[in-house]
Design brief:
Shape: globular
Helix content: 10-25%
Number of helices: 5
Number of domains: 2
Bound molecules: 2-acetamido-2-deoxy-beta-D-glucopyranose
Largest sheet: 5 strands, parallel
Number of strands: 5
Radius of gyration: 17 Å
Length: 225
């Protein structure tokens, strides 16, 4: 086993949420003996920062949270998020939101803010200041991270928000599931560039474990933006 101290998923560019049933035997990461998880990111991984910053956010009302907390508790999902499953698999507590005054930080912190962006914009959030992807990665490594996971963008072709926004009468734009084919090219474009950027970081830090994970999970649930 690798000696792995920190796990830092960087969930930067995804704008949608997942519903995946909890797997009862999912402690695959326990052997890694992670001490802490630190997570930057956005809505796909926010466990409560945005709801504190902006109590009237869409995620602050049902059906968000209904299947896990039975109330809207800050996750932009009706249940758990990927990061929750990662924490559970590692045998760590679910990550508290950084802005939660009650948060315990012994096992890491979640800096993710729903709606935040990889690059600065007018509405960029406090926790995602205007540092570049590269600078942020370097800073995380400098702070002692030994393993970083960069999730690739997911297939976004069936996101209800996008299907509404980019609706077209052009039948050939849709695949057999009535999803917009072209949108997946955007995900693929993003992931190709992410992979290249990771290779660059790897050159500088050959002792680090850096990887990109892509997923083909297509079970989208609630969405806001
Ligand atoms: C923090 O804990 C207090 C007391 O239990 C509670 O009233 C408050 O809602 C909690 N804050 C958050 C953001 O969870
Ligand atoms: C219809 O969609 C396909 C696939 O996206 C595209 O190649 C084609 O140019 C579109 N046709 C029109 C008339 O917009
Ligand atoms: C997606 O990208 C591939 C290769 O880059 C290209 O061949 C294909 O036409 C693109 N599809 C759409 C619908 O734009």
């Amino acid at each position: 086993m690798f000696s792995c101290k920190f796990l830092l998923p960087l969930l930067l560019c995804s704008l949608f949420f997942l519903l995946v049933p909890p797997a009862s035997n999912s402690h695959l990461l326990k052997d890694c003996k992670f001490e802490a998880i630190y997570q930057p990111g956005d809505s796909i991984s926010d466990t409560g920062n945005n709801i504190i910053e902006n109590p009237s956010t869409t995620c602050a009302r049902l059906p968000y949270g209904q299947n896990f907390y039975r109330k809207a508790a800050g996750r932009c999902s009706n249940g758990l998020l990927m990061i929750d499953y990662i924490a559970l698999s590692a045998g760590l507590p679910l990550l508290d939101a950084y802005l939660n005054p009650n948060s315990t930080t012994g096992h890491g912190v979640n800096f993710a803010v729903a709606g935040s962006t990889a690059l600065p914009t007018d509405c960029s959030k406090k926790l995602e200041k205007s540092s570049s992807w590269w600078e942020r990665s370097e800073r995380i490594i400098g702070n002692g991270a030994t393993r970083i996971v960069f999730p690739g963008n997911l297939p976004i072709v069936c996101l209800p928000a996008f299907l509404t926004e980019f609706h077209t009468n052009n039948a050939t734009a849709y695949d057999e599931f009535h999803c917009l084919k072209e949108l997946n090219n955007l995900s693929m474009y993003h992931n190709e560039h992410l992979q290249k950027a990771i290779e660059e970081v790897k050159k500088e830090h050959s002792n680090m474990i850096l990887c990109m994970v892509t997923t083909t999970i297509l079970t989208y649930d609630y969405y806001v933006w």
